[in-house]
Protein 1
Amino acid sequence: MSDLEEEYQLGYFTENGFTRKECVECGGAFWTRDEGRTTCGEPPCDTYSFIDNPGFDESYTVEEMREAFLSFFEEHGHDRIAPYPVAANRWRDDVLLTQASIYDFQPLVTSGETPPPANPLTISQPCIRMQDIDNVGKTGRHTMAFEMMAHHAFNTREDADDYAYEGEVYWKSKTVEHCDTLLGEMGADLEEVTYIEDPWVGGGNAGPAIEVIYRGLELATLVFMSMEQDPDGEYELKDGNRYSKMDTYVVDTGYGLERWTWMSQGTPTVYEAIYPEMIAFLKDNAGIEYTDEEEAIIHDAARLSGNLDIDDVDDVEAARGDIAAELGVDVERLRTLLEPLEDIYAIADHCRTLAYMLGDEIVPSNVGTGYLARMVLRRTKRLVDNVGVDAPLDELVDMQAKRLSYENRDTIRDVVRTEVERYRETLDRGSRRVEQLAEEYAQEGEPVPSSELVELYDSHGIQPDMVEEIATEHGADVAVPDDFYSLVAQRHNDETETDSESEAGRDSERYAELPATERLYYEDQSRMEFEAMVLEVFEHEDGYDVVLDQTMFYPEGGGQPADHGSISTDEETAEVLDVQQVGDVIVHHTDSNPGKGEFARGQVDANRRRRHMRHHTATHIVGHATRQVLGDHIRQAGAQKSTDSARLDVSHYESVSADELETIERVANEIVTENEAVDQEWVDRNEAEAEHGFDIYQGGIPEGEQIRLIHASEDTQACGGTHVSRTGEVGVIKLLGTERVQDGVVRLTFAAGEAAIEATQRTERLLSETADLFDVSHDEVPETAERFFREWKERGKRIEELKEELAAVRASGGGDGEEVDIEGTPAVIQRLDGDMDELRATANALVEDDSIAVLGSGASGAQFVVAVPDDCPVDAGHVVGELSQRVGGGGGGPADFAQGGGPDAEKVDDALDDAPEILKQALDA
RNA sequence: GGGCUCGUAGAUCAGUGGUAGAUCACUCCCUUGGCAUGGGAGAGGCCCCGGGUUCAAAUCCCGGCGAGUCCA
């Protein structure tokens, strides 16, 4: 079946007495030393045989196993690399979380554009896979968080050049040899190990791959990434697409740290092997105890469930029935025994996931990785409450963070506490809502419909089972549909398509043939004049695009706006209105044509540029100060500079208080006052990463082997912007304000240098104008404003009172109104040019005296109020309708009190003249 | 980045175009020796902001701001 069969004819196999066989159960091809073997070794063809029968000589903890693995590969010529963050979106924008060790080197290293940090290398990379979150705890082997131990080698073909690494380090046979040797050193019985042929396809790449199985457990996958999708390729693989060989070929291996540890211990589940003390703590805390007989059932069930090929939760539920049957136990009894234990396994795993996430400084939020962290945390909290563990969640997460040796454990605990509190508020809000809803439906005797459930979940974050619980207490039925989550998904399917592509594609083609523009602005960031040759000019709808051989003009990028200025030749001076970078070419957008092939002088608008430089350096300083004041989790989430101010968005889990803002401002200005050097440095990116970590990429990830670092005081950032040469040149930094731009992200707005002075002057002018208005000193403005506001409110109330009094007087004093008799009820018809409030009050007063009130006003347009005493059969709404029609409008209201009006104020009197007639009609009607 | 929900008294919320409400908390009075409590009265609102529609907007529409939530 496999088109790649010849790819597996490895020297190591033939030299070490392996034979290729086909599994009698599944038909898959595999390699083994055991001549008599007939099955491939992988469940369901075979079953776990290491439970209570560890497959290695010694028992290892995860820490010991990690160290054993890494040092083995170090001894075999690999460099040990520190793990990358689990937040993969810090260096690539196509995924959120790190799901495999190879993610660390995609896309730039695997494509050959950037050299790997070492070659070959070994690493133990923390990974998080949310896909099988529902299986965690239930199958005995699924975990959301795990470490993928790996050895990688990056190779290029002999005839290929222009890649960041050259030649072959090692390939398939050597890879298998390393794996086999490691298993041998661990004391595995090599006769029992099988190597299954299983070509790998994913993400546009493919290649032969081998699964390494021992005693039923898949211990490693050895992937030989060497092909890319190509419609004309010579290989057709299992996804139905065609592939062809690439110039680079990469050894991508994955050894599950947790599985190796499990194999070495032979415990019933993986969880008991990797964090036994936490499992013990949780069981004890939740008060879970078993009799010997129960213990035996659980033990057997765990072993059996490991043997089943379980891939989703439905299978787990079905499998439980099979297991119960095999053990001769009632399925409900088995469920009651296992469920609390499953929750505990899941809690331990989720806490470890959170420790990785928060330890790598992900801040919970409603977007991106922050949202995933929040989901995991809330899920964990539910499990903890469900199973009756009463330890605070921050303590549980800390247990795992401690084991993983994170240094920011205080912040982690703080974040967890804040999140738990936030969740509690959401639940409070939710339960109030559900209670109310439940009572409504209970009263009508109807069940809560699934549309309400979807609404509650989607808009308010309330789980259907929680609705069920609360609603039942209030006597309302709830039927949670089986396809609940697909109903929720349906609501999101109406989303609009993405908009069309830009024209950048064509542009970049046009500029591709031009040489890279030499960037003078990096050579001397304070120079503003230069000379250059005009290489090309493209005419445009609204101007010209000019390309020079070298330029001092800074193109828009990294949140710094483009420079302005002029490009002059002897004949022509062109204003530069915008500057953009297209590939390696810098394009100046101008208002006139300097002439292709001309020798030109460039002049950068120095004032504008200097303001940008101050704001750019100030941004680094403020970021650094914020990190010092608020904590190490502070990370840039976006930034924009202008001539007048700059803004910096940072990740933070609560809003910034006024006190904190002042402290940040003080710390930032201390850095300015210390007048330290701001240096730029071009360095090898791998060296930079090794020395400073990923925190240098807060403003985005630049391409290329060399990157530019900016050192401002103790802060180091990869940055392409222009900077002042000493922090003192920033002058002064004035923080203008802070706002929460989204959950988990806070925006700081500030101004530097003369812009700071201007900003201060602006606020002071506002204060002065306000003070002048009140005719008081600056100090007295707040209390004066407060007094004015209070008095304004008091006066409003007094006016209301007076209007009512006036209305009473008008109603009783007869006034100049006409009074007619409608079947024994007196009706007062009166013009009264006041506002609606006055009309209403007067009408009310008249009704108190058992009169019908028909009042009209011409104060702003025409307005009418008609009020009728309780027992009078006149319909006020009808009367108002008739009156309003006569002034070109309309009106209505309840039968005893109606309002209306229209635009024709001059017809108020005419309308009122008709009032007696209308009243009589209304009575007849 | 997108979808949805919500902004009304100090708190929790009613109010679907026609005179801004309830409960708790608050103040005062009464009941009691005191407390829990019970009875009565009162105070407290830029109905988030800005436009629009309308005779009339807390209410409908548009735009902001703020809060929440689901998804990628």
Note: The first helix of chain A runs from residue 11 to 15.
Protein 2
Amino acid sequence: MRRNQMIKRSIAAIIKDACEGCKKDGILPVDTEINPIIEIPREKGHGDYSTNIAFLLAPVLKKNPKEVAGMLVQHMDLNAVCDKVDVAGKGFINFYVKDALWQELLQDVYAKGIGALFPGMGKGSKVLIEFVSANPTGPLHIGHGRGAAVGDVLANILSKAGYDVTKEYYINDAGRQIKTLGRSTFLRWQELKGLQVSYEQDLYQGDYIKDLAREIIDKNIEVPSAEEDAIAFMAKFSGEVIMNGIVKDLEDFGVHFDSYYKESGLYERGIIDDTLALLKDKGYAYEKDGALWFQTSSFEKDEDRVLIKSDGEKTYFTSDIAYHLDKFERSYETLVDIWGSDHHGYIPRLKAAIQALGKDKEDLKVILIQFVSLLKDGKPVGMSTRAGAFTTLREVLDEVGRDAARFFFLMRKSDAHLEFDLDLAKKTSNENPVYYVQYAHARIMSIFRNAGEEGIGIDQLPKADLHLLTQEDEISLIKGIIHFHDVIEGCARSFEPHRITFYLLDLVGDFHSYYNKTRVLGDDRELTLARLLLLHMLREVIRTGLNILGVSAPERM
RNA sequence: GCGCCCAUAGCUCAACUGGAUAGAGUGUUGGACUACGAAUCCAAAGGUUGCAGGUUCGAAUCCUGCUGGGCGCGCCA
């Protein structure tokens, strides 16, 4: 959106020129360097942009900010961009951009297509976003669902912002938990065959393990006779079945990964050994008590961590370092990891490892996902993974549907607790925010259907003249549409996908108000056409926004 | 004991990263369909931003100390 930035730039120019003018008049010291903030005010009555420059200059001039602001405004030469500027509050300078400029901006976006609103900040730089990565030892629960939604939507945002994004799922198929899984299935299997077994506490407790055992019996799958081999077989079998289930759940949730990356592959391709060699080589690994340690402490405020245990086994940390090294080797410039917030203590050691490998720790962005608590009938639903009583993503999906589930997961900042109200998400009524947004889309489509019956099609929109839109709410809808650009940019910069949700709710609220007040299809053909173009662009933004969220944009509801 | 995160309207949450009179939704109360979809809109009421200090023109936001909640601190993953 070059012209959007153009507006901000020319306001900066107005300010700068005013400063120069003041310097020439001897009011301002010639050597004054100032970097004022130009922002969009929260309050609508405060103009389109405002600056705090007067507050910054006040101490220099030993005058109060309001005086300084007044003086600056007197030196301002309003160019073609603004038609009004004033001093407000304790010394803010507010700029009012000409309506015509916004109108022309939108006309321009219409001509170029909605893509004109996508920021090109990414410049094709390669980003790897790794998320979910749940161990294939049980079905995805609701917390994984939240991570999946956040990761998927963030990926959508980043690609809209011009990044080259790859979505990856890391499968921990080499660790001890896979052996535990095999043992769990094995014992359940023995149980089903009528043997007395003692099922230990630290094995997987969920009923899905019994289902796996039953599947082996029902399908007459041959099991190796030696216990050791049987357990290994069960591990492989269970892991694969569960992983297939996870992939299916994700697909039904609308999340598709570009790649599934196996931990075992790190061993097979020698990447683990290479990584260890590299760390030793650089002198960041040392032996103590029969184990190999990594020197976390020389990079971060954290304790040294074990890479190879005294029994010769590598730790999870080791493969994780290797994995991240490999991400860089695959020429990704930015690595985004999405973790459950209970792993936050893990960040320093991984950042330390990345530095040890000679990479910039800032290239790794870790996004933490806080826990989700479920609310049903107004009461919290208990969740304990150990007892196997957790709510699965599948259950939520079956209960509330994909659209509501995804939307609800993105209604909160990811590092804040999310209270998921199942009853609310299930409601097909006005209380449900998903419908509020979707309804706006359906309403606009309905208007276009009616317009079509009156012989006005979208093929006539190029003739529309947005200058005819003079109502205040129409201008502010135009600004809202244009603002989509800044919202995507903000999301991409801060890695906060939830902002899209809030933006849509806000935008759509303005639309509903407008709709109730103003009739779109009227006798004035020219005005009708202008309003239809406005709604057409609005619809494009809503549709694109919902698309980013992975939520459908229905034409009828 | 040490470290990280959170605390905002009755409830669930925002606040563009230090800006102006802290905003939405929901709930409560009252109103709007003989024209484009009432799954909508309009209005009222609701606050010492957990507490106490500090930094400055200006703090929900930053610094310190409390209080209350979550999570970490393994040769687990």
Note: The domain at 2-97 of chain A is CATH 3.30.1360.70 (Gyrase A; domain 2).
